[in-house]
From TrEMBL:
It comes from Ranatra chinensis. This is Helicase ATP-binding domain-containing protein. It comes from the Eukaryota. Residues 1-165 form the Helicase ATP-binding domain. InterPro entries: Helicase_ATP-bd, P-loop_NTPase, SNF2-like_sf, SNF2_N. PANTHER family: LYMPHOID-SPECIFIC HELICASE.
């Protein structure tokens, strides 16, 4: 399942994301998992993994060119765990490294990709948005405690990242939410008809 975890700051989005990964490992989903975070929060993510899930292998993928070169073979390499299973590590990297090392990261089919401070990709025209969107992943999760402004383009960018096969047309998305058009005769009935056919509100609820 793809979605947005939008709890307020301080309510434990990091721990919830770690719990999700623990659950997936428990269900024999052995990765690989990718977490993309701001550089400033990299140490905190490692601390939280060591605190709440010390048995899970974590690979911090950032640093100098030589450091990253040594770690590339380990990005999706399975290793034996303390509970007797071979799994891939959780790869944690920052925004800049995800761009500079996009070729290596895009060569792996990730089981789950998590983006911390997910509102950073609210502009679909940015390099970061295009880079992260290019990474093959079965599922995607955005973590953000920052509410979006009244901007449909920003909302669409997040939804397109999560469900590109559904939210694939910005113009159509904006047209659907032109509330002023509802004042015109028959517009309300048309919107209801479109909702029954396309289930847009249902899909938004499922994502958020």
């Amino acid at each position: 399942m793809n979605g947005i975890l939008a709890d307020d700051m301080g309510l434990g989005k990091t721990v919830q994301a770690i719990a999700l990964i623990c659950h997936l490992y428990e269900q024999d989903v052995g990765g690989p998992f990718l977490i993309v975070v701001p550089l400033s929060t990299l140490p905190n993510w490692l601390i939280e993994f060591e605190r709440f899930a010390p048995q899970i292998p974590v690979l911090m993928f950032y640093g100098s060119v030589n450091e990253k070169k040594k770690k590339k073979p380990m990005l999706a390499a399975r290793q034996m765990t303390s509970w007797g299973r071979k799994v891939c590590p959780v790869v944690i990297t920052n925004y800049h490294t995800s761009i500079s090392e996009c070729k290596a990261l895009a060569s792996i089919h990730w089981k789950y990709m998590i983006v911390d401070e997910g509102h950073v990709i609210k502009n679909y025209k940015t390099i970061l948005f295009r880079t992260l969107s290019s990474f093959p992943s079965m599922n995607r999760l955005l973590l953000t405690g920052t509410p979006l402004q009244n901007n449909l383009s920003e909302l669409w960018s997040l939804l397109n990242f999560l469900l590109p096969e559904i939210f694939n047309n910005l113009n159509a998305f904006e047209t659907w939410f032109q509330i002023e058009e509802m004042d015109k005769e028959g517009s309300a009935e048309l919107l209801i008809k479109q909702e029954k056919e396309n289930h847009i509100l249902f899909l938004l609820q499922e994502v958020c």
